[in-house]
Amino acid sequence: MNPTQWDFPVELCCRPMAFVTLTGLDVVYNAVHRAVWDAFCANRRADRVPISFKVLPGDHEYPKCRPKRTSYEWYIPKGILKTGWMNKHLNLVPALVVVFYELDWDEPQWKEKQSECATRVEIVRQSLQGRNTKVAVVLIQKKTPLPPGEDVIASERAAALCNACELSGKSLFVLPHTDHLVGYIIRLENAFYEHAQTYYYTEIRRVKSHKEFLNKTTHQLLFVRHQFKIAFFSELKQDTQNALKNYRTAYNLVHELRAHETNILEIKTMAGFINYKICRLCFQHNTPLDAIAQFRKHIDLCKKKIGSAELSFEHAAWMSKQFQAFGDLFDEAIKLGLTAIQTQNPGFYYQQAAYYAQERKQHAKTLCSHEASVMYPNPDPLETQTGVLDFYGQRPWRQGILSFDLSDPEKEKVGILALQLKERNVVHSEIIITLLSNAVAQFKKYKCPRMKSHLMVQMGEEYYYAKDYTKALKLLDYVMCDYRSEGWWTLLTSILTTALKCSYLMAQLKDYITYSLELLGRASTLKDDQKSRIEKNLINVLMNEIPDPEPDCDVLAVKTAQKLWADRVSLAGSNVFTIGVQDFVPFVQCKAKFHAPSFHVDVPVQFDIYLKADCPHPIRFSKLCVSFNNQEYNQFCVIEEASKASEVLENLTQGRMCLVPGKTRKLLFKFVAKTEDVGKKIEITSVDLVLGNETGRCVVLSWQGGGGDAASSQEALQAARSFKRRPKLPDNEVHWDSIIIQASTMIISRVPNISVHLQHEPPALTNEMYCLVVTVQSHEKTQIRDVKLTAGLKPGQDANLTQKTHVTLHGTELCDDSYPALLTDIPIGDLHPGEQLEKTLYVRCGTVGSRMFLVYVSYLINTTVEEKEIVCKCHKDETVTIETVFPFDVAVKFVSTKFEHLERVYADIPFLLMTDLLSASPWALTIVSSELQLAPSMTAVDQLESQVDKVVLQTGESASECFCLRCPSVGNEGGVATGHYIISWKRTSAMENIPVISTVITLPHVIVEHIPLHVNADLPSFGRVRESLPVKYHLQNKTNLVQDVEISVEPSDAFMFSGLKQIRLRILPGTEQEMLYNFYPLMAGYQQLPSLNINLLRFPNFTNQLLRRFIPTSIFVKPQGRLMDDTSIAAA
Amino acid sequence: NYPLYIRSTPMESELKFHYMVHTSLDVVDEKISTMGKALVDQRELYLGLLYPTEDYKVYGYVTNSKVKFVMVVDSSNTALRDNEIRSMFRKLHNSYTDVMCNPFYNPGDRIQSRAFDNMVTSMMIQVC
Fold it and tell me: Which residues of B fall within a CB distance of 8 Å from A343?
């Protein structure tokens, strides 16, 4: 009997394999034999047949076979299953004995060897007397055998050997000792396996045959035994299906047995064994549901079979073992590839096992708490003669006794006492903790975090019972935050209570204080009297005294704890504990709130700290300090209240630092921000509240940021959602939920008291020096110093704008690209109160579009805040968006000398260039001058002089110019460059010293073409009815060829004419032909001239349309006036 | 996932039931997350038996707004079939809806409604 008496025997848990013994091998001294043996046992992988081998000497004594019973009539079995039976068939009684013998077919001394071999076989047979064990002979040969049938001597001698040994031919094997040893061995193995199977088959048959002799009344136990044996042999035979079937039958038979207090343990033990086998096989057959169902059935059947009440812990232990074993099986199956799910995994079985282990512990506690004087009985009733039991699950002091009534009550009593005393020595907690941790590992795997936490709590509690407080605290501390974050306060309180006990018993000051703080807090569901007790203890601890013991603690443990506490008290050490509260729910709540999200630097920063206690009694704190991200402010925000340690609970209603439960206390703080912090954020990094004082012990409760603990964010959310009307409170009190934490504020600069005006005439014109007048006026009461102006393009706009915008203070010269887009920190000097200052800026914008301009004025001023002199830097900025536009649009067109639009010009023939300047500016523009810069390919016909000098253009007005030009030669395809048109201009309103802006316009290219014949006409500007009108046409040949020209003049109704009506003539290259006509107008008005048609024989392209370009088609004919009025008419 | 209302009878092993309800949330969470993939509107609110223990049966129910109801009953009580449990949950849900309809009830607070209390009590009496 040992602590693991509930463990299943090894032979039950292993996988049964056919047992084969090898004899005649000398593995120690013979290298060949060694190699053979190694080949048998090395590398036994799953693909090899399941056999367990053992080397035994040839004359090994096998267990004796009991003489066969001929009749079962008078046989009364003493138990269900003998303890040695399984082991016997697994490791002692072989299915096959193999005799190895070195013998070659061509052995010269064949006869002697043969008889020696036969003797060996005989010896083996002798020792196996009565058993059905098979015998086989293996001849180890040095030579490779010839193919069967060819070696005549071999077959003859083999037959002879078989005869001599009384063996069948099938049981004689040859093992040539050659290179392919392993291959031969595997073949041998398979043959052995077959023999073994036949052996087990006959064994099964033999056991089955016993059944017929049994009768139901006296041999019930044998039914179970035989069924179990059949199943076990089937398993050895590797016939798992039949094994399972037979185990199931056996299981049913076990429960048919008549159960009584005396044999219930035996029945349960056997049922447990068989159940284990069934479940194991089910998992092996990959039918886990069957296994689970079987297990459930098993548990349901056995749950109530408690047996003797005095030994009820045994039942619990047995149940625990059942669950644990099943959990192990399940887990093993999962390792082999079975998939478990969240609701069905080994964890549940381990958990249940742990539960029964706990129950066992409880039973043991009630049943085994004997007085110390109770001695262990002597002689030991649990000792047996052999040291082991004959049958599984029987009582050592009455083995093999089947009667249901107790023959010897005295002996029984002693036996039970011995068991109880044994049980007392069992370390239950260890068992429970192991099971729980197994379960935890499983639940972790199957995504059950809460189950895991729950089990860890149980583990923690078990450690507590086991007095391993450190581990208990570690576990409990680990899971506490889960329960806290999920808001299960009842559970949290129970965990905390245990944890508090642990920390008390270990005299762990910091933990003790932390748990006390939380148990006093609002999250704890403890009753008020409990809270009062804890609060009192806490105060005691802070006053460096020993706290009262926690209730329900072990008396002995309390004694040691008190000693520990006393040591602590006397020990002078660090007595200040800083506890970060953001991770739990302490009994004081804290909220910090700045009065505003931002403060100007010239007003004091103010904020409130709100405190609220949830403990049952008022409590006094000694100090409150607030820390900021800028630590220089920390010194301003400390409240300290000197009080004697003993006064923590007394003198309650007065004092700023005394908190009355449920009441909100507001503490106002005020400080002046530093000027360096302008533009920075001031944050409360922590609020520290000190309980107790440094002479005793003190605890610093430290809130990160502006207060709030593990539960407060959820509460704030609930409060925000709530529609509940809050009860009216007196003026100086506030509702706790309505306070919103504001842990940071911005320091911003002082409000400037100056005015900045901008004066300008938008929009700006491209490239002009745009004038911007900035007027700064001080409205401050004192002198302001160091006024600086920053002006220009506002940063952060398009990068191209920065390139094309330039700012300068000097308007008299044009600025180029080297000028910046933003002028920074232009010193202006000091300003007296009311003084005004003007500054002129010039901006040049190179591109159109809108730009944001920034004008930023900064200055220094001295002020006082709270009797403190500070220098404030103030600034004011103005932004203005200025649109930039083109001052004017320039349109250019080419026209013929007749002012007809020209798409192309003809070489060497004069044409006109017309420019049209349309003012787009809303302000008047003065055109200072204009200039035409001709390209080298162009020549001017006459003087090029500006016709628009000093013209002032209002909005929408335009100025045109006209230049007569000639292009002497034909250009390439793209046309001929004309040149540039330069306009110099300025605003009419601009001052004299503002430079003139020149805008250069590139004139368009023009396409120049050759013309073969140029015709121009000389004719007066008008005609008069019935007066002769001489018209002269000049025909110029522009080619190098002699031209044949056909000329005809078509008559017109309005004219009579004289001259050549139709002619054909030749014009030499470069020469000119004149044609003279006299027209005689017949009608007045705008009349069509008789049209001149010219046909060039060499140039069919030369059409009349082209011709019409050059010569007039109509003429104004005046009516014939009276002669005396003639001159006046002409004048008109 | 924090308790809105919890009640048990008999009172002595209250803590055990609290733990049991809390651990059952694991299964509820898992069921919800696998169901989330299915069509939401066709979801069955009743989750069925959450997990078996030796002595108790734990049933779960989740509303569309993910409010969870968990019921722990003695496993020896064979009178309670799936259908009965289902109807009990429906009753609970209705009662809970009534509580929610109360304009003075702030969702997320502990339920302190007398009507809900009475309903639960009557249900408990009926079962025991």
Answer: 27, 50-52
Candidates A74, A73, A92, A72; CA nearest to A82 is A92
The full 3-state SS of A760-819, as one line of letters, equals ECCCEECCCEEEEEEEEEECCCCCEEEEEEEEEECCCCCHHHHHCEEEECCCCCCCCCCC
pLDDT tens, residue order, chain B (128 aa): 666 666 666 556 677 788 888 888 877 777 777 766 555 555 567 777 777 666 778 888 888 777 888 888 877 776 677 788 888 888 888 888 888 888 777 777 777 778 888 888 888 777 66
Judged by CB atoms closer than 8 Å, whether chains meet at A488 and B18 is answered as yes
Q: In chain B, which residues have their Cβ closer than 8 Å to the Cβ of A488?
A: 2-3, 18, 22
Mark yes or no for CB contact B106/A723 under 8 Å.
yes
Homologous superfamily of domain range A754-864 = Immunoglobulins (2.60.40.10)
- More confident call, A151 vs A840: A840
Shortest CA gap A466–chain B (Å): 21
Please compute the mean of the pLDDT values over residues A661-681 and round it to a whole number: 82
Burial of A829 (0-12, 13-18, 19+ CB in 10 A): exposed
Q: How far is A718 from chain B (nearest CA, A)?
A: 7
User: Would A888-1009 and A1013-1118 be classified into the same CATH topology?
Assistant: yes
CA distance linking residue A462 with residue A227, whole number of Å: 43
Share of residues in chain A with pLDDT > 70 (%):
88
On the 0-12 / 13-18 / 19+ scale of CB atoms within 10 A, A327 is buried
pLDDT given at position A645: 47
**DSSP letters spanning A472-534:** HHHHHHHHHHHHHHHT-HHHHHHHHHHHHHHHHHHT-HHHHHHHHHHHHSTT----HHHHHHH
**Domain assignments of chain A as residue spans, ordered by start:** 1-214, 306-323+337-466, 469-573, 588-641+656-722+734-748, 754-864, 888-1009, 1013-1118
A99-109 pLDDT tens trace: 888 777 777 77
Q: What is the per-residue pLDDT across A490-528, written as a single tens digit (0 to 9) for each?
A: 888 888 888 888 888 887 878 888 888 888 877 777 788
* Residues A1-214, CATH architecture: 3-Layer(aba) Sandwich (3.40)
How many CB pairs (< 8 A) connect A and B? 64
Q: Could you tell me which CATH class the domain B11-126 is placed in?
A: alpha beta
CATH of domain A1013-1118: 2.60.40.10
CB atoms A491 and B18 under 8 Å = yes
* Span between the terminal Cα atoms of chain B, in Å: 28
Q: What is the DSSP secondary structure assignment for residue A418, as one 8-state letter?
A: H
CB contact under 8 A, A486 and B22: yes
The continuous run of DSSP H or E covering A1018 comes out as: strand A1013-1018
Interchain contact, B23 vs A454, CB within 8 Å: yes
The CATH superfamily label for domain A588-641+656-722+734-748 reads: Immunoglobulins (2.60.40.10)
Q: How far apart are CA A1124 and CA A302, in angstroms?
A: 156
- Encoded tokens for A326: 């099943």
**Partners of residue A677 on adjacent β-strands:** none
Residues in A closer than 8 angstroms to B23, CB to CB, are: 448, 450-451, 454
Got the DSSP string for A553-591?
A: --HHHHHHHHHHHHHHHH-----EEEEE-TTS--SEEEE
Phi (first) and psi of residue A305, to 5 degrees: -85, 75
Assigned CATH class of A888-1009: mainly beta
Residue A719 Cα, gap to closest chain B Cα (Å): 9
Three-state secondary structure along A993-1014? Answer: CCCCEEEEEECCCEEEECCCEE
